[in-house]
Design a protein that fits this description.
16% of the residues lie in helices and 43% in strands. Strand 7 and strand 8 form a beta hairpin. Helix 2 packs antiparallel against helix 3. The longest helix has 27 residues.
């Protein structure tokens, strides 16, 4: 180390001495024009890891020399076309001795600072330029929060720490782009700040969040933090009374929410229903939400009654009841045709005519004639048996009255 320092000191002395001699000769020669800068050194900003290039314009350099120095450490970096420093990342180039470039490869944050371009005139001429090194953001593993598991109703604080230059800003967003509930019914697309506080967390807050760090230097970086909210099962039933006819296929439905994920099944009168030829069970999952379906493929009279959808996890158990009742099948309408007999017209044929002398007609003869007529009427289908009986009785009464009159 001492040898290197001694070498640098000797070399610097030689360069300075040589420069002084040349300066003396240049001053003594009135035909040599004194060099000057053509413009200021522009400040530059370079991302870490890239190459920085500082430019110094000089006119009428002649036999004078240009040197680059680090101001804050007073370190000589280059003299004319030679690199003095032992830093292998430093280089110097020029364009026709008019534009002199200081190159710093693989720039580091420690390279940030003021740099001087110097001409060894008497008095010395110099100008400075600033190199700013920017660093893209980087999220620190500690104290940035990791995945969190909390009970519903508790308070939650998530933290995100990042480094970078300039200092990064932190933005919280939901991974899927959903709005973030912040209470009082309000929702926002994002939250700014290194900490994200949630008061009385609920299931609507559950999901992945992104902690995004940015400072204008690409690329921005993010970390994914999963927020898991635990709560016991809850069940909702839209239709608690469901009717079905025998032979009909019917589906019973329940909606459940639970986390951790629940065990779900159906029962009837305390007995667990097993899927098979008669029953079909389906479960539709969406995060912590569950849609339970029980399909009875062909309802019979033994299927009517109360069914329960049951949901349970490590935090609790709940169930909901659906009653399946019988709907009668549509009955067949029977149409009965009633035939009204034609009005009866009592006609006594010649055999039943009451003669002018009823005394000559015997009762037996009249009865015989009446019976013959009754039989004829019945056999011909003109009169019903009740009608014939009525006629018979009427004739008998009339005959009797006539006999009584005699």
């Amino acid at each position: 180390m001492r040898e290197n320092l001694r070498f640098c000191a000797v070399l610097t002395a030689i360069v300075v001495f040589t420069g002084c001699l040349e300066t003396v000769w240049s001053i003594m020669d009135p035909n040599i024009e004194i060099p000057k800068f053509t413009g200021p050194i522009l400040n530059i900003t370079v991302p870490v890891g890239r190459e920085a290039q500082l430019e110094c314009g000089v006119d009428s350099l002649s036999t004078f020399k240009v040197a680059w120095l680090r101001v804050d450490t007073q370190t000589i970096l280059t003299i004319h076309s030679h690199v003095i420093t032992k830093n292998h990342r430093i280089a110097v180039t020029h364009a026709e001795h008019k534009l002199w470039y200081l190159h710093i490869r693989d720039v580091r944050e420690s390279d940030r600072g003021w740099y001087m371009c110097q001409i060894n005139t008497d008095p010395m001429k110099s100008q400075v330029g600033y190199l700013d090194v920017v660093v893209p953001p980087d999220i620190l593993d500690y104290p940035t929060s990791t995945d969190m598991v909390v009970r519903e109703g508790s308070n939650v604080t998530m933290r995100c720490a990042a480094t970078g230059s300039p200092e990064p800003t932190i933005t919280w967003r939901r991974e899927g782009g959903e709005y973030i509930p912040i209470g009082t019914g309000k929702e926002v697309p994002s939250i700014e700040g290194t900490t994200f506080n949630i008061t009385k967390v609920n299931r609507l807050h559950m999901g992945p969040y992104l902690c995004i760090a940015s400072n204008g230097v690409p690329p921005s970086v993010s970390k994914r933090i999963m927020l898991i909210v635990h709560f016991p099962p809850m069940i909702w039933i839209q239709n608690q009374l469901v009717g079905a006819m025998e032979g009909q296929q019917i589906t019973l439905e329940c909606y459940s929410e639970a986390y951790p994920k629940s065990i779900n099944y159906w029962t009837k009168e305390g007995n667990m229903i097993v899927e098979g030829a008669k029953y079909e069970q389906t479960l539709d999952n969406n995060a912590y939400k569950l849609h339970m379906k029980l399909t009875i493929k062909s309802v019979n009279k033994n299927d009517y009654g109360s069914y329960k959808c049951v949901s349970k996890n490590s935090l609790g158990e709940t169930d909901g009841t659906i009653k399946l009742y019988h709907i009668p099948s549509p009955s067949t309408v029977r149409t009965t045709t009633t035939t009204t007999p034609a009005p009866i017209k009592l006609i006594l044929d010649k055999d039943l005519r009451l003669r002018s002398n009823p005394s000559k007609v015997s009762v037996e003869e009249n009865l015989s004639n009446i019976n013959d007529y009754s039989l004829r009427s019945t056999n011909s289908g003109d009169l019903s048996s009740s009608t014939s009986s009525y006629i018979l009785k009427t004739v008998l009464v009339a005959t009797s009255l006539m006999w009584c009159r005699v």
